[in-house]
Every structure is written in C-alpha cells, then in structure tokens.
Amino acid sequence: MTRPHISINFAVSADGKISSVARRPSGWTSEEDHARLLQLRKGADALLVGRGTLEADRMTMKASGDPLRCVVSRGGKFDPAHPLFHSAGGPIHLLITEGPALEIPGATIHTGSLASFLQELTAIGVKHLHCEGGGELARELAAMDAIDEIHLTWAGHTIFGGRAAPTISGVPGEFLPASGAYELIEFDPRPETGECFLSYRRKA
Ligand SMILES: NC(=O)c1ccc[n+]([C@@H]2O[C@H](COP(=O)([O-])OP(=O)(O)OC[C@H]3O[C@@H](n4cnc5c(N)ncnc54)[C@H](OP(=O)(O)O)[C@@H]3O)[C@@H](O)[C@H]2O)c1
C-alpha cells in the first residue's frame, strides 16, 4: 500500500490509559509536554486525528508551516460551527468512510477507506503524516501495520483506571492481527514534571 511515513504521539498515564473517560479534555500533562507536542508537529506535511479527538479537545490543529489538517470519521457528523472550520491554518481534508459526503465550506471531502485516503494524501504530496489520536484511529493504523514512529509522554503522575478508558490502541478489545516491533530512539526523563519523553522507530 502506498502511504506516507506515519508517526503517532500520545501522553500515557501510569496505567497505560490516554484519557479517563472517552471524552476527557486535554490538559492533564505538563506545559513541557505541550511544547513537545508542538515540536513533533514540525516537519509533518499533514496532521491527522479522529473526529472523537477533534471534538473532545476542541482542536484547531494549527501548526507552524501550516500542514494539512486531516480528520477521519465514519458517519461524517462534523459540526460546521467547530473551531477547526473557523481558524486559520493548513488546508482541511475530511475523510468520511461510511456516511453521506456532506459539504463544509473550505474543506475538501474524501470518501472511501482509510487506506485509500492515505494513498490520496501521498498523491497530493504528503510524505510525513503525524497522527495525534485518538486510540480508535491509532488502533486502525496499527492493525494496518502503518505506524512508523511512536512518540510517547510517559505521565506516571496520573492513574486513570476505568474499563472503558482507551489506550493508544483504543478501548481494550480484540488483539491486533500482529504485534508491532519498535526500537527506542529517544529517552528523555523530566524529573521536574514527573514525565518522560520516549520515541520509538519501527524495527527494520
Ligand atoms: N492522551 C493523549 O495523548 C490523547 C491523544 C488523543 C486523544 N486523546 C483522548 O482520547 C479521547 C478521544 O478518543 P476517541 O475514542 O473518540 O477516538 P478517536 O479515534 O479520536 O475518534 C473516534 C472517532 O473517529 C472516527 N474514526 C476513528 N477511526 C476511524 C477509521 N478507521 N475510519 C473512519 N473514522 C474513524 C470515528 O468518527 P465518527 O464518530 O464521526 O464516525 C470515531 O467515532 C478524548 O478523550 C481525547 O482527549 C488523548
């Protein structure tokens, strides 16, 4: 499958969760983590999130260099009043895999599968796609064996608990078709915040 180089970035609690409930807002990690989040966006030609994360975190997906702002949805229930559609930034590309192809002024609408969307992004020049969640979308990428880099902030200062609380591969459920193997390329503990920045690259 032709696709861009894909990286993901998540903050993870001591019990491996990415949020306490399905719709917890962001902001539970340090300012340094937020700075790293912005740093990791640099160099990406496109940012990608699931509609759940877009809604929960009220994201505008603004980043230096104005990368494409891509959001995926099955049902396509995008709110035209969402801040994403009213903020300056990179071109907006929405993927709707199952619902009707609605029109949102200023946004390019794609239909079809996530795999075909990745091919279309490649065709318009996206070499590096950076995904900021959520778990449901990252699980789909992992199931497609389409994650090349994993960036984590280990935020062991917090325990979320919760049977329904998602991890970076979504809510606990079926095993992935195969395990992925990654090697550590960055280990950056931050004692002052109780967090640790980690980066992994897919093993050749
Ligand atoms: N700790 C962290 O670093 C971090 C990072 C990101 C998010 N989060 C948290 O995670 C929560 C949001 O997660 P979420 O469970 O809602 O997951 P999500 O993946 O952001 O959103 C799920 C929605 O995205 C769409 N989607 C996901 N995979 C898709 C696919 N393969 N094809 C088409 N559409 C797809 C669907 O949208 P439709 O419903 O429109 O069909 C689905 O309902 C929030 O609480 C957020 O704060 C935490």
TrEMBL record:
<dbReference type="Pfam" id="PF01872">
    <property type="entry name" value="RibD_C"/>
</dbReference>
<comment type="pathway">
    <text>Cofactor biosynthesis; riboflavin biosynthesis.</text>
</comment>
<keyword id="KW-0521">NADP</keyword>
<feature type="domain" description="Bacterial bifunctional deaminase-reductase C-terminal">
    <location>
        <begin position="4"/>
        <end position="169"/>
    </location>
</feature>
<protein>
    <submittedName>
        <fullName>RibD family protein</fullName>
    </submittedName>
</protein>
<dbReference type="GO" id="GO:0008703">
    <property type="term" value="F:5-amino-6-(5-phosphoribosylamino)uracil reductase activity"/>
</dbReference>
<keyword id="KW-0560">Oxidoreductase</keyword>
<dbReference type="InterPro" id="IPR024072">
    <property type="entry name" value="DHFR-like_dom_sf"/>
</dbReference>
<dbReference type="InterPro" id="IPR050765">
    <property type="entry name" value="Riboflavin_Biosynth_HTPR"/>
</dbReference>
<dbReference type="InterPro" id="IPR002734">
    <property type="entry name" value="RibDG_C"/>
</dbReference>
<dbReference type="GO" id="GO:0009231">
    <property type="term" value="P:riboflavin biosynthetic process"/>
</dbReference>
